[in-house]
Amino acid sequence: MSNEITPFEQTRRTNPAGNEFWSSRDFAKVLGYADYRNFQSVIESARTACFNSGQRVEDHFVDITDMIGIGKGGVAPTSIVRTTRIGMSLRG
What we know:
Helix content: 40-55%
Distance between the termini: 27 Å
Number of domains: 1
Order of helices and strands: HEEHHHEEH
Strand order of the largest sheet: 1-2-4-3
Radius of gyration: 14 Å
Structural class: alpha+beta
Oligomer: single chain
Number of strands: 4
């Protein structure tokens, strides 16, 4: 058995309450998407699968604005989706 941490687990984050979540932007990189815009359709498909499975979409996908680094040490607001483990498993 390997003790290697998967890229999926490496991108896991926790909120102050201790709940785990994944940033859609981080997860897009793990899956090899160079352009985040191309990953947005994956998120939409996962939302649909979540709904179709009888789960509450808002329990597994939350749209937020996060600050990301840009050139020369600056930051800019950007939209991301915080997802749960279940949400990311529905990506299809």
